[in-house]
Design goal:
By secondary structure, this protein is mainly alpha-helical. The chain has one domain. It is 77% helix and 0% strand. Helix 2 packs antiparallel against helix 10 and helix 10 runs parallel beside helix 13. The two termini are 34 Å apart.
């Protein structure tokens, strides 16, 4: 259906078949329609479920827990609660207030932006379930292992002093789970309006970049820039992702175009993860509740993890 829509606009209406502009426009129309339809549908459906999983309930579920079970719970909750970066601060404060170990809290903060049900469905619809499964498994592993690695640094000393003293107060969102079907519908539709309203520009920008790469950038040029999957090329991909700002949905069309040009899958996934979980704006927001040493250790762990994932996947692909 979406491919037919791209054909209709780019080729039948505008007569651009066989040209770079036609290929770029076809990609743009097809991906924008596909992503926005998937976004609206999935956000609405998950909004009904998330009406029962507010930040307050997430905090309550995690209170007083530690160890591997707590980290698995944190990673799992992070994957099904795609709270935006603005929510990370009250969640961070709430977790600390509830006595949840900092390593468990950081596992949640890694998983939440990087792996969520909306991004999974959109990613699967664009690049297929095989790459989606790899992305999800590696993302969850990075979040789980990160809790142990980061806890070893005893990072509590680098949490801002006011965080230990603050009470949650009005920082937690209202609970729509007890208001019946109408309240859940209103909550779900409000989720659609807020999330789509917040990220539609990133979707258009991401699809636009992907469309340009797809239509105008020669495959051999991209291959030269991206390298052959070596350590250096993956490091460059991670560094290139840091200044960018997008959520997992907005960067998917760029990843799709890079894969179509022959860039190794490990390099593409490392780039995606850096954009989503290691972007400069995200780090600056987190800086409001932690000190620079903690932020540096947190960002350093993610950067190293993303490079190792990228290099490992490229190596496996070259062997097979």
């Amino acid at each position: 259906m979406f491919d037919a829509l791209g054909d209709l606009v780019a080729y039948r209406w505008l007569g651009l078949e066989g040209s770079p502009a036609g290929a770029a426009l076809h990609f743009f129309v097809m991906d924008v329609a596909k992503i926005l339809v998937l976004l609206t549908t999935v956000i609405y459906l998950m909004g009904w479920l998330r009406a029962l999983l507010t930040p307050e309930r997430v905090r309550a579920m995690m209170k007083g827990r530690s160890g591997p079970g707590a980290r698995l719970t944190a990673v799992g909750l992070g994957a099904v609660t795609p709270f935006c970066s603005c929510s990370s601060i009250p969640l961070f404060i709430g977790f600390v207030e509830a006595g949840i170990p900092l390593g468990v809290t950081l596992s949640f903060l890694i998983a939440s932006p990087m792996v969520n049900q909306v991004a999974v469905v959109v990613l699967a619809g664009v690049v297929g379930w095989q790459m989606t499964a790899i992305y999800v498994l590696t993302g969850l592993t990075i979040a789980f292992v990160g809790g142990y690695v980061l806890q070893a640094f005893r990072l509590e000393r680098w949490v801002e002093d006011y965080v230990w003293k603050i009470r949650m107060g009005e920082a937690i969102l209202a609970d729509p789970g007890n208001g019946g079907l109408r309240a859940r519908h209103d909550y779900a539709w409000n989720e659609v309006r807020q999330i789509v309203g917040r990220i539609w520009k990133f979707v258009l920008i991401g699809v636009g970049i992907g469309a340009f790469i797809h239509g105008y950038v020669p495959a051999d040029f991209v291959a030269r820039i991206a390298g052959d999957g070596s350590v250096l090329s993956v490091v460059v991909a991670v560094l290139a992702g840091i200044p960018m700002y997008s959520d997992a949905v907005g960067i998917i069309p760029v990843a799709e175009a890079l894969l179509g040009k022959g860039v190794p899958v490990g390099t593409v996934l490392a780039f995606m993860m850096a954009v989503v979980a290691l972007s400069l704006p995200e780090m600056l927001i987190l800086r409001r509740v932690v000190k620079w040493p903690l932020l540096g250790v947190f960002a350093g762990y993610l950067a190293v993890a993303f490079v190792l994932v990228g290099v490992g996947l490229n190596a496996l692909r070259s062997v097979s």
